[in-house]
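Sequence, please.
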């Protein structure tokens, strides 16, 4: 999402010419960026402020054509609608964020989690499944013939789910992006991706791994947003970036906000400079060509007088 915000800051730049085709192209690019933002699950409300600021800042730039103004009004309207919708969605996602964190499988059962095993083969441990009261098993064959979302809609009846898988990284690569929209469903307010390394793993090991996830800052930060998303490849990338910068989530978002703000301001100044440069250039060219024209006329007059003499 951070990349999309920065991308949008540059896509929304008004072109330095009033060519209708270029103006429409800039508007289409920014509209495409907004379309991506509509489908972003991890959107932060601060991005809405940035987007609205960028939309409003364009309205006060000079030399706008009529078609460009229409584009800006339409984009600003979309930003306002999106902000209202996402504020409501953010409130829905964080409505249960103050509930106590589960610390064991028993706590999960008390909180009405549906514990689900996702396996790429059929030789799973039946005793473990019975001990955990797991009744739903998704196999590789199921994933091949149906999408992950369709399987969840059919088999998941309770609000919460704990997904356990052995080759979990392979499974996430296949289904992670396609499963994101399910986070908006009322059936899934929280999802935990859980590393189930061995088929014969014992219950105490599950408790230990789950507790380590819960006690880590990763799980807590994600829980503050109303959901858990324990997916190692994605979490490691985020955590490495923030570890290098030594920043919290809010500080990291604020830095992105400043980057976009500075980019918009610099482009605004550059465009004003360019407009003034063009205006001064036009005046200079007029004077230059006027001087040339004056000299040409003067030369013609001198030639006429020279011929007469």
């Amino acid at each position: 999402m951070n990349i999309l915000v920065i991308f949008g800051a540059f896509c929304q730049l008004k072109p330095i010419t009033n060519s209708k085709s270029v103006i429409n192209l800039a508007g289409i690019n920014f509209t495409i960026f907004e379309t991506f933002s509509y489908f972003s699950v991890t959107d932060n409300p601060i991005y809405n402020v940035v987007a609205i600021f960028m939309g409003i800042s364009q309205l006060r730039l000079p030399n706008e054509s009529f078609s460009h103004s229409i584009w800006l009004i339409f984009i600003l309207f979309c930003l306002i609608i999106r902000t209202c919708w996402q504020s409501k969605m953010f409130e829905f996602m964080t409505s249960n964020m103050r509930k106590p964190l589960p610390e064991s499988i028993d706590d999960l059962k008390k909180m009405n989690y549906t514990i689900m095993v996702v396996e790429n083969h059929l030789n799973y441990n039946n005793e473990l499944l019975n001990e955990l009261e797991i009744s739903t098993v998704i196999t590789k064959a199921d994933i091949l013939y149906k999408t992950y979302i369709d399987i969840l809609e059919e088999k998941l009846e309770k609000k919460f789910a704990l997904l356990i898988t052995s080759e979990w990284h392979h499974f996430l690569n296949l289904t992670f992006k396609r499963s994101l929209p399910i986070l908006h469903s009322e059936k899934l307010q929280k999802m935990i991706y859980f590393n189930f390394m061995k088929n014969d793993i014992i219950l105490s090991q599950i408790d230990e791994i789950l507790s380590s996830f819960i006690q880590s800052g990763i799980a807590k930060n994600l829980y503050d947003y109303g959901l858990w998303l324990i997916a190692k490849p994605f979490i490691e990338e985020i955590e490495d970036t923030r570890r290098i910068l030594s920043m919290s989530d809010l500080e990291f978002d604020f830095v992105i906000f400043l980057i976009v703000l500075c980019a918009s301001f610099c482009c605004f100044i550059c465009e004003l400079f360019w407009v003034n440069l063009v205006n001064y250039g036009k005046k200079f060219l007029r004077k230059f060509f006027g001087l040339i024209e004056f000299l040409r006329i003067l030369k013609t007059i001198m030639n006429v007088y020279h011929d007469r003499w």
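The chain is about 65% helix and 5% strand.
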